[in-house]
What we know:
Layout: H1 10-27, H2 29-61, H3 66-98, H4 101-115, H5 118-121, H6 124-140, H7 144-173, H8 189-221, H9 225-240, H10 245-255, H11 258-264, H12 272-278, H13 280-308, H14 314-355, E1 377-385, E2 395-403, E3 407-412, H15 418-425, E4 433-438, E5 441-442, H16 448-452, E6 455-458, H17 469-474, H18 481-490, H19 494-499, H20 521-535, E7 539-543, H21 551-564, E8 569-574, E9 585-590, E10 593-598, H22 600-605, H23 610-618
Parallel strand pairs: 3-8, 3-9, 6-7, 7-8
Antiparallel strand pairs: 1-2, 1-4, 4-5, 9-10
Bound molecules: adenosine-5'-diphosphate (ADP).
Amino acid sequence: MTKRKTPVSFKEMMQLTLRGFRIWWKENPELILSVLICGVVSALTPYADIWLLARLIDEIAGERDPQVLTTFILALMSLGAVLSLLCAGLSRWKNVHLACLWHTQNKVFIKKLLSMDFADIDDGHVQELRSRIWQNTDSGGWGLYKLIYSFDAIVRSIMSIISAILLTASLFILPVKASSKGLTILNHPIFILLIIGVMFGVTLAAPLLSVKAGSYWVKYADENKLGNRLFGFWLGNLGNDRSKALDVRIYRQDILSRNYLKKYNPFIPSSKLAKAARGPMGGYHALSGAVSQIFVGVAYIFVTLKALGGAFGVGSIVQYVGAIIALSGSLSMLIETLGELRNNTPFLRTVFAFLDMPNKMEQGDMAVGQNSDKEYEIEFRNVSFKYPGQKNYALRNVSMTFHTGQRLAVVGMNGSGKTTFIKLLCRLYDPTEGEILLNGIDIRKYAYHEYMHLFSVVFQDFKLFSFELGQNVAGSRNVDLDKADQCLRDAGFEIRFDKLPHGLFTAIYKDFDEKGVTISGGEAQKIALARALYKDAPFIILDEPTAALDPIAEFEVYSRMNQMIEQKSAVFISHRLSSCRFCDDIAVFHQGRLIQRGSHDVLVSDKSGMYYRLWSAQAQYYEK
Ligand code: ADP
C-alpha cells in the first residue's frame, strides 16, 4: 500500500494535508490557534522595527530635530518592549501545545489501535504500517507532525510576505532624479520588471534546491527501514523492556553483534544517506544557500543605486534592504514549505493507510440476549480458517456444538489448532470458510462487544497491568471490593493476598508505584484466573494459562476452576490430557481437524485413536 511510488499530485497533496489538519484541529484546536496567532504577531513584529528605524535614520540624516528623534527612539524602545513581551507570551502558549505534539499524535494512533480488529493488529502488514509511521516521525518529523511545523511556517511566511510587499512597493515606484544621468535607467519599466524577475527567479531557485535536497530522505526511507528498526530495537526496546532483561544478559553477544548493526546502520559515513549528504543532497543544500546570497547582493546594489540617484533618503535604504531580504526569505520559506508538504505526502499516505483500516468486526447490531433467556448454544458449522497471509489452514472443516452448562475439554498436540479454535469462538478472527452460530444465528450478526461479553478467557500469554491488584481483577478503575476479594481467594491466591501490605490496593509491578510488588508466574496465573471469575461471563475459557505448571499442578488448578464456575459453560484447553480428564466431553484436535469427541473412558478405549496414543505417551506423568 505504502510502497507504491505513484507521483504526488497537487490535489492529493492538498487532500491529505487538509485531512491531517482536521485531525489536529479535532484533537487540539488550541494548538492550531496558538500557532496561527503567534505566527501572525511574530511575523509582523520585525516590520514595525524596520519602518521606525528607517524613519529614525532619515531624521538623523536630515533635520535632526531633537524632539522628533526622542519620539522615534522612545517609540522604537516601547514598541520593541511591548511586541517582545507579546511574542514571548504567545510563544509560551504555542510551545506548551507543541510540547504535547508527540503525545497527541500517539493518542490518535493508540485510539485507532484500540478500536482495530484483533486480526488486523496481529497482521504483519499492519505492524509494518505502524512501524513505518513511528520511524518516519522519529527520523525527520514526517507525517502528521510535519503539518504543524509547516502550518507555522506558512502563516509566518504569508504574513511576512504581505508586510514586506507593503514596505517595498515604493522602492519600485519612486523614481531616481532626472539629473542623475546614467542612473535614470533604473526608472525604466522594463528594467524594473527585469530586476523583479531576477529577484523572483533567485527566490524560487533557493527553496526548490532545498526541497530537492530534502527529497533524498523520501528516496532512502525504504532502504533505511530495517536499519532504523534495528536501532530502535537496540537503543529502545532491548534495554528498556524489563521482560527481556534476562534473555538479553544471556544472549547479548549474539543479539547485539556490532557487525550486524553496522551492516544496516543508516547513520554511518558509508550509508547511502550519508553518501548522498556528502554528494548531491549536500550539493543542493549548498547551492540553495549560495543562491540566497546572490539575491542579497542584487537587492543591495539595486537599493543603493536608487538612493544614489536620489530616489529616497538614506533611512529608506535600511527599510528596503531589510524588507526585500525578509520578503525573499519569506517567499523561500513558503515555497520550501510547500515543497516539504509535497515530500510529506507519501508519508501521509502511510498514516491514512493505517487510520483508514476498516473495522470488519463491528458490522453486526443484533442484541445477544434477544433470542433466549441466557441459554446459549454455540455451533461451529464446517469452519475452516487460515491466518492472514498464510497458505496453510490452521483449522479445517470443524463442526461441533456445545451449550450453556457444558464442560468441554479441547486437547491435542502443540500446533493442532486448539488456540485458533478459541480465537474463532471469541471472534478475534472470523472463519475463512463456514460459519459459527450462536443460538442458530451467525455470530457476525451480533453486536461485537455484546458477543465478546459472553467470554472470559485466560490465554497462555495473558498479561496483567501495572495497576492495583483490585483493578487488575476487575479490569476497571471501579472495583467491587468484596467480589474481587472473593474471586482472588477462589482462584487460590489467598496466602499471598493476606500478606500484601495494601490488599486490593497494592500496585502490581513498579511501573507506577515504587512500592508495587513483584509477583511470580504462578501468582500471576491465579490473579488472571480471578479476573476471569470476576467478569462473570457465561463462558469461561482456560487456554493453558497453567503451561508453566507441572501436569499434576495444572490438573489441580483446572479441577478447582471446574468446581468454582458452577452453572457456567467452560472450555479447558491443554496439550496434557491428564489436566482435562474430569471433563465428560473431550474434543481431540490434530493438524487443525477435530478428529475425536467423547468422554475419557470412551476415547481411551479406542486403541487406534489419537487420544489413546497421546494418553499412553503421557501416562508416565499421572500414573499416581
Ligand atoms: P495449539 O493451540 O494447538 O498449540 P494453534 O492454534 O496455536 O495451536 O496453532 C495452529 C496452527 O496455526 C499452527 O500451525 C500455528 O503455527 C499457526 N498459527 C498460530 N497462530 C498464528 C498466527 N498468528 N499467524 C500465523 N499462523 C499461526
